[in-house]
Amino acid sequence: MTDGATECWIRAADGSEAEVSVLGGLICVARPQSGDVWQIIIELADRLRAAILLPDGTLLCREETRGHLPEGMEDDAVLVPEITPAAFERAAGPFTHPLT
């Protein structure tokens, strides 16, 4: 890429993968497959204290980031103590176990 973005793939032990692009302070996860790669994505978001913007416009983020949200965005945010698979499912919809 010529825009300075870094791209890579992450792969879980079960073989499921997702494409990850990093540009500045933005991390984009594209084409996550069904499987354990979701656990990696969710753990990464939690460890980085990052927010997850879901396709429906819902923002899943830690409660501690409330003060950093742009004005009006709190209305569409799901604020949780930590981003976990269960919190992700509540915001994004149900998955079968394991996350698929």
Question: Can you give a write-up of this model?
Answer:
There is one protein chain. Helix content is 19%, strand content 28%. The chain contains two helices and six strands. It has helices at 37-47, 85-92, and strands spanning 6-11, 17-23, 26-30, 52-53, 59-62, 77-80. A hairpin with a 5-residue loop joins strand 1 and strand 2. The radius of gyration is 14 Å and the shape is globular. The model has no long low-confidence stretch (mean pLDDT 87).
Question: Major β-sheet, in short?
Answer: 3 strands, antiparallel
| Beta-strand residue fraction | 25-35%
Q: Radius of gyration over alpha carbons?
A: 14 Å
- Which residue ranges are poorly predicted, with pLDDT under 50 across at least 5 consecutive positions? none
What's the arrangement of secondary structure elements?
Layout: E1 6-11, E2 17-23, E3 26-30, H1 37-47, E4 52-53, E5 59-62, E6 77-80, H2 85-92
Parallel strand pairs: 5-6
Antiparallel strand pairs: 1-2, 2-3, 4-5
Concise overview:
The chain has helices spanning about 35-45, 85-90, and strands at about 5-10, 15-25, 25-30, 50-55, 60, 75-80. It is an alpha+beta fold.
